[in-house]
Design brief:
single chain; 250 residues; alpha+beta; Immunoglobulin-like; 2 domains; five-stranded antiparallel sheet; four-stranded antiparallel sheet; 5 helices; extended
Length: 250
């Protein structure tokens, strides 16, 4: 199964499929026996989580609290009819209560299923983002270097004892980096930088080395068309990971 197949299973686990998606699901289950097992596991986890959440309350703002009205006073005899207050002046300002936001239930369900893919299917965050488009529909973004939203895997060079896999994604706001790192010195601080074509290093973020693997996603304010390299630097400024980015030609 590829990432689009797993995204389709996530949507199927929530019970929100259109006719075209349902046909694709049937074809996937027919050709891949493991898909049925993964779908059953996703549905089982969703069933366990369902009692713990209120689908409506989870996606709305709390309405403003209105004080309880005072207890009614004992009736008294009135000497004369009480005049009603004059109608409000149309020019008086009208106070409007904040509008409640209720995103579509399908979007909420797909977001939950994507989280389940991380825990159950072992799919990395970058792959989940690449497998769901802006409407929550299964999709795989592909294209040449610099294509917006496409995950570009790049080769790396590392110092002794360090392992790394790297990828980048172009956005209109900068370049997103995805790094899986091993062999970093526990407790030591490292910086992830994106180097532009002028040699200027822009920090995307920092991390602390651990004895286990480090999986991090960061973003630098460098457009992909201007980015030439991604590096992981130790506290002395020495590159322990170096990845050249292919030039953007389109």
């Amino acid at each position: 199964m590829d990432d689009a197949d797993r995204a389709l299973l996530a949507a199927a686990a929530t019970g929100h499929l259109d006719d075209d998606e349902r046909a694709r699901l049937d074809a996937l289950l027919a050709r891949d026996g493991a898909a049925a097992d993964e779908l059953a596991e996703l549905r089982a986890v969703l069933a366990e989580l369902e009692p713990l959440r209120d689908p409506a309350a989870a996606w709305r703002e709390d309405p403003p609290r209105v004080p309880e009205p005072p207890a009614p006073a004992a009736p008294v005899a009135l000497p004369a009819p009480v005049a009603l207050p004059a109608p409000a002046d149309p020019a008086d300002p009208v106070v409007q209560l904040p509008r409640q936001r209720r995103p579509a239930r399908r979007t909420a369900a797909l977001a939950l299923a994507a989280c389940l893919l991380l825990a159950v299917g072992g799919v990395g965050g970058a792959l989940v983002r690449g497998a769901l488009d802006g409407r929550g529909q299964p999709a795989v973004v592909t294209g040449p270097p610099g294509a917006l939203g496409a995950v570009e895997r790049v080769s790396t060079r590392t110092s002794a004892g360090v392992g790394a896999t790297a990828a980048v994604t172009a956005h209109t706001w900068g370049t997103e980096t995805f790094l899986d790192l091993t062999g970093l010195e526990p407790g030591r601080t490292y910086s992830v930088v994106v180097v532009d074509e002028a040699g200027r290093a822009v920090v995307a973020g920092t991390l602390i080395g651990t004895a286990g693997p480090v999986d991090c996603t960061m973003n630098a304010a460098v457009l992909r068309a201007d980015a030439s390299r991604v590096q992981v630097l130790d506290a002395d400024g020495t590159a322990v990971v170096d990845a050249d980015l292919p030039p953007v030609t389109a």
